[in-house]
């Protein structure tokens, strides 16, 4: 603590902000989990008992925490600065030499542990417990992952030789998966292979499949129909032949992994930075649109640093006179400010997606705009 905050006033402000942040974060998470438990009670039946439902909801707490951290940081810091102002402590700190520049440096130091905490929650603990929570629920209900569409999950893959292995060749393979079981087993698989001129080469269906550590899908009970064009003297009158084969087991090399399939069932906003990066690379390799996932990727990269923006937004409240409003009004203003940021951030992402704007600019604009707003407000109140 002394190494990060060498000055006494820095340690004092840090303790105050961390204490208020922890209390507000606990209160907000408890409130959201209470509503989650109420909504989950309707699913309690059979082996999915109330204790399992409570465990399912509690395991989602890290994801909730990562979503609420910036707002909790804003409300907590506004409360601390408003209290310091109401008790004239901040005035004393200003007389002792705490100017705007030093205040910003202090907030940067205070935000550093919160940034690390956010990264741990959003990139490691949150996705892990979220997946564990879903597995507990599915195992109790006897269900599996399914797509939002009645036709299942569709994914694009690279084409290989007729046996499904070997080097990549011109063409494309479209894979349709009915559902994904708890242990990464896929069921009701269909594959459509086309050459580089988009002429149908084969249709392959399988009852189930499993991915091994060597990067190969092992399909069970496979029915395959291959189409071949018989070369004729008249090119305007081609003749095609179809041959159907059945195989108990077929091994296929594919770039479609269980991780990619599971990613298709999760919204980009709930994915980790690593998973988003891998999936964006897969989409670009297959010449697919990655705009939405790219915006989510840059938002996830920038998101932890929005905590510093929230703390800077709270700093002008320390310069307001006591007669300018009570602490409760200032905290209410902070809540409205935090909600406006969340709404504007989501709205701007959707607008950027519709307008096909540069992904980094789309993700960076909202926090940058609020940071500029905080600096303008800070300059205005510090000279008042």
UniProtKB/TrEMBL annotation:
Nucleotidyltransferase among keywords? no
The processes (GO biological process) annotated in the record are: lipopolysaccharide transport; transmembrane transport
Q: Please provide one cellular component term from the Gene Ontology annotations of this protein.
A: ATP-binding cassette (ABC) transporter complex
UniProt keyword terms in alphabetical order: Cell membrane, Membrane, Transmembrane, Transmembrane helix
Q: Where in the cell is it found?
A: Cell membrane
The way this protein sits in the membrane is described as:
Multi-pass membrane protein
Instruction: Locate the transmembrane regions by residue number.
Output: 12-35, 68-85, 106-125, 301-320, 327-348, 360-381
Q: Which PANTHER family match?
A: LIPOPOLYSACCHARIDE EXPORT SYSTEM PERMEASE PROTEIN LPTG, SLR0882 PROTEIN-RELATED
User: What is the name attached to this protein's record?
Assistant: LPS export ABC transporter permease LptG
Species of the source? Polynucleobacter arcticus
Q: Taxonomically, what lineage is the organism? A: Bacteria, Pseudomonadati, Pseudomonadota, Betaproteobacteria, Burkholderiales
The coding gene here is lptG
């Amino acid at each position: 603590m002394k190494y990060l905050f060498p000055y006494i006033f820095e340690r004092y402000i840090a303790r105050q902000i961390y204490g208020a942040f922890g209390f507000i974060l606990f209160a907000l998470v408890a409130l959201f989990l209470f509503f989650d438990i109420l909504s989950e009670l309707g699913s309690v039946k059979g082996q999915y008992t109330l204790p399992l439902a409570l465990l399912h909801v509690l395991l989602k707490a890290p994801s909730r925490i990562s979503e609420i951290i910036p707002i909790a940081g804003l409300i907590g810091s506004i409360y601390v600065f408003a209290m310091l102002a109401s008790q004239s402590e901040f005035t004393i700190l200003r007389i002792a030499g705490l100017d705007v520049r030093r205040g910003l440096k202090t907030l940067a130091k205070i935000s550093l542990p919160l940034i690390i905490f956010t990264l741990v929650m959003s990139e490691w603990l949150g996705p892990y417990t979220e997946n564990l929570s879903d597995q507990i629920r599915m195992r109790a209900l006897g269900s599996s992952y399914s797509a939002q569409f009645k036709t299942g999950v569709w994914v694009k893959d690279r084409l290989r030789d007729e046996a499904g292995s070997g080097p990549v060749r011109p063409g494309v393979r479209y894979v349709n998966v009915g559902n994904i079981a708890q242990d990464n087993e896929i069921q009701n698989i269909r594959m459509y292979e086309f050459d580089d001129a988009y002429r149908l080469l084969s249709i392959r269906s399988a009852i189930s499949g499993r991915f091994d550590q060597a990067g190969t899908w092992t399909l069970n009970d496979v029915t395959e129909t291959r189409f071949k064009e018989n070369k004729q003297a008249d090119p305007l009158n081609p003749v095609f032949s179809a041959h159907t084969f059945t195989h108990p087991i077929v091994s296929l090399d594919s770039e479609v992994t269980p991780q990619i399939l599971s990613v298709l069932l999760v919204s980009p906003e709930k994915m980790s930075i690593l998973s988003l990066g891998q999936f964006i690379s897969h989409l670009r390799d297959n010449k697919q649109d990655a705009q939405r996932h790219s915006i989510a990727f840059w938002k996830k990269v920038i998101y932890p640093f929005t905590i510093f923006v929230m703390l800077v937004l709270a700093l002008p409240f320390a310069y307001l006179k006591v007669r300018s409003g009570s602490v409760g009004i200032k905290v209410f203003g902070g809540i409205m400010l935090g909600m406006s940021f969340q709404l504007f951030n989501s709205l701007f992402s959707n607008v950027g997606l519709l307008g096909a704007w540069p992904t980094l600019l789309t993700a960076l604009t909202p926090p940058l705009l609020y940071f500029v707003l905080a600096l303008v407000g800070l300059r205005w109140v510090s000279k008042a």
